[in-house]
Amino acid sequence: MNDRPSLDDIRRAPKVLLHDHLDGGLRPETIVDLARDGGYGDLPTTDPGGLRTWFAEASDSGSLERYLETFSHTVGVMQSVEALTRVAYECAEDLAADGVVYAEVRYAPEQHTTTGLTLEQVIEAVLDGFERGGREHGIRIGTLVTAMRHQARSMEIAELAVRYRDAGVVGFDIAGAEAGYPPTRHLDAFEYLQRENAHFTIHAGEAFGLPSIWQAIQWCGADRLGHGVRIIDDITEDEDGVPELGRLAAYVRDKRIPLEMCPTSNIQTGAAKSIAEHPIGLLRRLSFRVTVNTDNRLMSGTTPSREFAKLVEAFDYGWDDLQWFTVNAMKSAFIGFTERLELINGVIKPGFVELRGDRA
Ligand SMILES: O=c1[nH]cnc2c1ncn2[C@H]1C[C@H](O)[C@@H](CO)O1
Ligand SMILES: [Zn+2]
Q1: Which residue lies with its CA nearest to atom 9 of ligand 1?
Q2: Is this complex scored with an ipTM above 0.95?
Q3: pLDDT tens for residues 252-262?
Q4: How far is ligand 2, taken at its centre, from the CA of residue 20, in Å?
Q5: Is the dihedral of CA 247, 63, 88, 112 positive or negative?
Q6: Considering the domain 7-359, what is its CATH architecture?
Q7: Does the annotation count 131 as an active-site position?
């Protein structure tokens, strides 16, 4: 009875999101409002519909560097406590409306201080929005604080991740252009976090290949990989077409290191050619700890449900697959074991049972 889940069905399924950027998920209407209120005059258009199209098209360049340039406009309007709280609140509302029950949402506090906010004010404003949005719309959101890999503030941001760990910050990340900025550039921050028993993920294996993944895991001790798609470069086929894992790929699979895959984003930045050719198909067949994510809902014109729907179409996935991805994500979250288990057994599994019952 594994009939093909439709987009509507998928929206009703309980979902878990581990890789979503706060500054990549604004509503176009909100960008226009905030630009007007904050005196930001550089938007390419002030028509919300036109802005939605502009972001989708400008992000479709095939280059991560060009993709990242579009963030100047979202970051540009997120420079006050009110703006940050509103964006975080709406993020919670939008994810809950799409059926997400648990999300980890990330952003780089250091990018939101251009008009004088302190890093603490930025973090507290976002936590405030997530807390209220989460409470009112029935979704649990954990924050990941990101340091930009081309900057030199990772230690400072890592210290804040630890300071705010009991207030809703559940982990740390580095993001930004990957080529030329290896993870080991921030080794001191990662070593500090490990000593503090804190969690972190690293964007690796997106615009740069295996050396980046290897450093992220074996030098820096990443708990998860942001994207990690290029792990495919360490998998070959023998003469009978049977996949053979190199040592790094085998390590990632054996240690159950979660891969935060973001199919649509990968096509826009050139990390994958198409959904049908996306490495997620093979990695799922080989039972890597794969999870499905949005990266930037605005830039990619996507939602968690749409990412799943595209995979259903490309790989003929059924409910078993969608539940498997979802449980994988929940197991890989940075909140404590008991809470993860409660969400798996109390929310995710019953939610899928109910959906399948409705369709039987
Ligand atoms: O997919 C990505 N790779 C690397 N960096 C990214 C990606 N998506 C967003 N970012 C950057 C741009 C944002 O301003 C920053 C913090 O969310 O993270
Ligand atoms: Zn990302």
Answers
A1: 21
A2: yes
A3: 999 999 999 99
A4: 7
A5: positive
A6: Alpha-Beta Barrel (3.20)
A7: no
